[in-house]
Amino acid sequence: MPYPDSEMQHDKTTFNRHYLCPCGKHTVHTVTDSAGNTQHQILCPICRLTFTVVHIPANRITQGQGLTQKLVRLVPLKDHLQHQKWVQKQQDLQRKVLKRSHQRHLPIFLNVVLSQVQPVDRWMLLGTLAGPPTRSLKAFLTYGSQAQERMIKNHFQLDRLPRILAGLGIEDPELNRMLAELTELSRKIQIRELRFLEKGHCLQSVPAPKPLATLRVR
Ligand SMILES: [Zn+2]
What we know:
Elements: H1 5-10, E1 15-20, E2 27-32, E3 38-42, H2 47-50, E4 51-57, E5 70-76, H3 77-104, H4 106-114, H5 119-130, H6 137-140, H7 145-153, H8 161-168, H9 173-199, H10 213-217
Antiparallel strand pairs: 1-2, 2-3, 4-5
Helix pairs in contact: 3-9
This protein binds zinc ion.
């Protein structure tokens, strides 16, 4: 928690809300602080044993297009733990892939692109090998040789890697195996997150108590 409870009480911009928990008998308490950070707590003694709160990037639904906010769902704890395991494995594997390819293949990539003497040819070859460059040709032409090298190196990224390796004619079965495993992991993670979004319990407001007779008279 960003603030101790005592400080939170004095913060006028803090929002407290209660939502129905999955079993419908108790609530989930959420507190949003002035910085927009929301903490959730499942107050239900039954649901807190089997559910947990997850935040899923909304762009999972739109295939990465727009919608940067995160959606909140209550999902089965065991599904969440499996999801976390996959995400951890994905991160470990990504680090391994980057380490191996930086050691073995980045020098070749740099040599090949920098072997072109004219900056315009370097920029063109970069596009052919790594896909659309992140800087325009016009910008690239204003760079000194060090900045050019840095910019070329920045294109040696995970998502461009399969294309770069194929373009350079590099065969690295171990790396291919890891890349295939990464693809499979991302697929599993994405399917799981979509299921969280579709089947997870949405936070719904607790129905307001029936208005008192005296209030209706007003
Ligand atoms: Zn409950």
